[in-house]
Amino acid sequence: MGFQDFCKSIGNGGCLAAVYVRASLGKNTSPTMLFDALFTAAKLGIIDANDDCYVRDAIQLMRLVNPSKTYSVIKQKISSIEELKGQLAAVNFSRGRANHWVLVDKGQIIFDSLENSQCVKYGKPVDARVLFMEDR
To answer: Which of 13, 41, 86, 90 has a Cα-to-Cα distance from 47 of 20 to 30 A?
Structure first.
């Protein structure tokens, strides 16, 4: 896979993978750190760069970028962020056939890989991946 192919894959569907990386590394995560983590995960087959960065194993991805923690992920259908009761979660906003994942903590979006997501702006939250992390 060429460099531009990888960048296109991230642009088309790397939002959930980016959310997992940001959640595991914390608020000081730089774009370079995100890119490096996603590229390494693709080389290892943790994400599928040929399928719009499909995340094959969320826990393995988070452990790759921050091995000092243990992780668990619980999938949940939601209709509002408030249903998460202040938990850290990847939240999928849907607008028609388009979807976009963001990181939510305490009812607020704390990370969005797009500056102006139309899915977040005009769509509705439909799925969540509640994230649990503990120091090892």
So the answer is: 86
Q: What is the pLDDT of residue 104?
A: 97
Distance CA 25, CA 105 (A): 14
Residue corresponding to tokens 């408030």: 82
Measure the CA–CA gap between 15 and 102, rounded to whole angstroms. Answer: 7
- Of the CA atoms within 13 Å of residue 115, those in its CB half-sphere come to 1
Which among 93, 25, 91, 21 is positioned nearest to 55, based on CA atoms?
21
Q: Which residues of 106-129 are buried (b: 16+ CB within 10 A; e: fewer)?
A: eeeeebbbeeebebbeebebebbb
Count, residues in the chain: 136
* Mean pLDDT for back-to-back runs of 10 residues, the chain (136 residues): 83 94 95 94 94 94 97 97 93 96 95 95 97 94
Q: Which two structure tokens, joined as six digits, stand for 19?
A: 């959310």
- Predicted TM-score of the model (pTM): 0.95
